[in-house]
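Today's session is about reading a structure prediction critically. Students often jump straight to the picture, but the first step is always the sequence itself: look for stretches that repeat, for charged clusters, for runs of hydrophobic residues. Only then move on to the predicted structure, which in these notes is written as discrete structure tokens rather than atom positions. Here is the chain we will use throughout the hour.
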Amino acid sequence: MEDEGRGLRARRAAVAWDLARVLAHAAARPGKAVSRGLAEADGCVLGTPLVSPGAVPPVDRAAMDGYAVRGPGPWQVNGHVEAGAADPGTLADGQATGIVTGAALPTGTTSVVRSEDAVVTGDRLEGPAEDGRHIRRAGEECRPGEQLLPAGVVVDPAVLGLAATLGLNRLTVIPQPTVAALVTGDELVHRGPSGPGRVRDAIGPMLPGLITRAGAQLVGSGVPSVRHLPDSLDELTKALSETRADLTLVSGSSAAGPADHLRPALTSLGAEFVVDGVACRPGHPQALARLADGRLVLGLPGNPFAALVAFLTLGVATITRMRGLRLPELGHIAVPGGVSCHPTSTRLVPVRLTAHGAVPIGHGGSAMLRGPAVADALAVVAPGPAEAIAARLLPLDPGIT
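Below is the predicted structure for this chain, in token form.
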């Protein structure tokens, strides 16, 4: 009766799926902005706006290989400007000089004649020369002091390239949060198939990719890895107290059974529950708690699809806030054939996306990964009395917003 009572209390405490995401996002805190070299800034978030310290390009440059010319043709070819020339010289009317893409243009240049359009006879050049053609003007990309990107933009390869173009060596960024992953279960095996009394761990292999795709860094003792623990209250409590990550994921101990030690461990550590159960199917027994020092702990159910749903629900919301980003809104899509609603809980249903809308593909039980493995996304189906003909879309890849 005691376990049954605990289950009833958990169901009463469960919060709506949308509210759970909002609470998780609000519970996290963005990291402090730091200065990092470009090579270490990839995947971080800009902590301050990206402002150009100077004009780009700093001088007029050739946009094509060919000839810099002055005035109408024909022109007399006189010399060649190398790409790294600091002083390209000056052109007089009727003069031309060979030039390569990106090289500084000689003073007086009015146009660049492309190599493929040039007709050269001895030192005589002829070709089309519209004023300003194939010239990158100084400051064409940006002016000194111009804001190019606001704070809050994710640093990707294009941003890194832009920063280098501006002449910057470092960026002020909010670093990626650190995440530790603990998978519990005496019955779990990590090689070979399941069998009597043996269950192949499917959650541990999922977590590193989910963590990195969400924009966080997996950490562990020695090398980044998922740590496996037996069903032991003492060992789980010790691991939670010793882990220094911003967020710790614990799989397999979040329900109310005799081997589920997460809540007793968190209680013994003085943790405060932010979310204790979410009204969704699958993934109901997920939880998010804050330790006394501010670190967060996310409890994932032990069934693989339920654990995936919990990470995409609470984990992504938490990491998103730690990165200094807003909680993304979910787009809507039609479900032409309809999909059954749960009377009180949000359903997360694997779907394929077609030209006509979302099509449920089945195999969406809490222990199954076949459905999400072949799905394009999860349909977020609101509670209701019958069927839904529309839903929102939750990306299966947490790096997609």
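Discussion point for the tutorial: The chain is about 20% helix and 30% strand.
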